[in-house]
Design goal:
Strand order of the largest sheet: 2-1-3-4
Oligomer: single chain
CATH class of the largest domain: Mainly Alpha
Helix content: 55-70%
Number of helices: 9
Number of domains: 2
CATH architecture of the largest domain: Up-down Bundle
Order of helices and strands: EHEHEEHHHHHHH
Radius of gyration: 17 Å
Shape: globular
Largest sheet: 4 strands, mixed
Distance between the termini: 38 Å
CATH topology of the largest domain: Glutathione S-transferase Yfyf (Class Pi), Chain A, domain 2
Structural class: alpha+beta
Length: about 220
């Protein structure tokens, strides 16, 4: 039952799948595809031209959320989706809040201009607009996430779930861009990221990209 994750771990969505599989103990290989310069035939694998895709034997599964739910059905333990229907819905909502809310702001408006584009062009970025986004557009997201953590270590219940993996994965790219929630303003979110990013599954995806992309990496 071989698995191959198609896409670069620079992507928070690819990273989410890789961490999800690592936390479940599912062996996988990685095909480091760049969606901006994809190989011939990539659209046959990913009809929308996005990453990740998952090769499973002769089948292809697309979209990080679909992939993780698919793997959960095949590998039930350790469970990374709550069994309780309401708690599962909450976990899936936090995942969607990150994937559909935070990433569309943090990715193209902060990570791309400050990290990705300079890496590809060799030119220093104009930081004016990204810094405005960090100061004005991201804080409401941080406020919400800090409040959702409540008094616990995880977003849902007392165990690691897809919500935590999705949230912490997206913040890797913000840290690469030199942005992170301040401990004095968002103490619960800051503490959450400290312990999540220290997990071996995260370190295995963070450390390999730091030499290439870590010029602005901000410590927590």
């Amino acid at each position: 039952m071989p698995y191959t994750v198609v896409g670069s771990p620079i992507s928070p969505f690819v990273r989410k799948v890789m961490i999800f599989m690592t936390e479940k103990g599912i062996p996988f290989e990685q095909d480091n595809v760049n969606p901006f310069a994809p190989p011939d035939g990539f659209r046959e694998i990913s009809p929308l031209g996005r990453i990740p895709a998952l090769r499973h034997d002769d089948a292809i599964v697309n979209d990080s959320s679909v992939i993780c739910a698919y793997l959960e059905r095949l590998h039930a333990t350790p469970a990374l989706y709550p069994q309780d229907p309401l708690l599962r819905a909450r976990a899936e909502w936090i995942e969607e809040y990150m994937d559909g809310g935070v990433v569309p702001v943090a990715g193209p408006k902060v990570f791309a201009p400050l990290v990705l584009r300079p890496m590809m062009t060799g030119q220093e970025p104009d930081e004016t607009e990204p810094r405005r986004v960090i100061a004005e557009e991201l804080p409401p997201f941080f406020d919400y996430l800090d409040a959702q953590l409540g008094g616990g270590e995880f977003f849902v219940g007392d165990a690691l779930s897809i919500a935590d993996i999705a949230a912490a994965s997206s913040f890797v790219n913000l840290r690469l861009a030199g942005a992170a929630p301040a401990a004095d303003r968002w103490p619960k979110l800051h503490a959450f990221l400290v312990h999540m990013h220290a997990r071996p599954s995260f370190q295995a995806t963070i450390q390999p990209i730091l030499p290439l992309l870590g010029k602005r990496w901000v410590e927590l």
